[in-house]
Amino acid sequence: MTVNEKNAQIQELAQQIIDYGVKMLKAGYVTGTGGNISVRVPGEEAYLISPSGMPYEELTVDDIVMINFAGEIIAGKRKPSVEQNMHRLILKNRPEFNAVIHTHSCYAAAYSSLHRPLPVFLDVMHCVFGGAVPCSEYARIGTMELAQNVEKAMRGTNVVLIANHGCIGAGKDLAEAYGNVELLEECCKAYFAACSAGVPLCISDDDIRESIADLSKRYGQ
Ligand SMILES: [Zn+2]
Q1: For 100, which of 15, 25, 141, 189 is 20 to 30 Å away at the CA?
Q2: Ligand 1 center to residue 147 CA distance, Å?
């Protein structure tokens, strides 16, 4: 790949961050300048991330910041998101993920205040998340402790509830990461609905294990 092709690829990924920022804002998953989004720079120990405190609809690719896995800013004129370390630790430790999205969507944020995992009460949860959705231990916004707690809670899954804050999802690309936080929000909403009508019954560990094994052979094209 030539330098020009590499630059074009980075610009394209920076534009995707902006597009998904606008998408999550319009979906109501954040308000104002809340939330943050990152993508891995292909083939490098670095990632791109949304800037701190700037409206998504006003961003241009020049506002996106590039940071290496040591946490040093290597390109960009803006201050990066305060949650830069949360994105960095996930992308650094989870090579299967290339994109991370953090939102404050209403039902996930509400559930995160309970400080407990969202149990597998819908089949789709173990198909997509691999099981129950953990809730990270509480830490203050933008701290290294928060980054470490979230990375730890996310081991073995692709979404996490962030205590008293919101949620985060990762995927092989931004479309998948977005789909995961979208589904988590729908699951949290459905859980509250179920609780208002009774006590939701959860799917057994045996059924979860068998479903995962069975679907790995049969699902998809
Ligand atoms: Zn946040």
Answers
A1: 189
A2: 11
Residue 111 clears pLDDT 90, i.e. is over it: yes
Distance 4 CA to ligand 1 centre (A): 34
Dmax over CA atoms of the chain, in Å, equals 60
Cα 68 to the chain's mean position, in Å? 19
Catalytic residues: 83
pLDDT at residue 215 above 90?
no
Which is the CATH superfamily of the domain at 3-218? Class II aldolase/adducin N-terminal domain (3.40.225.10)
Rounded to a whole number of angstroms, the distance between the first and last alpha carbons of the chain is: 31
Residue 156: pLDDT band (50, 70, 90) is very high
Domain boundaries, given as residue ranges, for the chain: 3-218
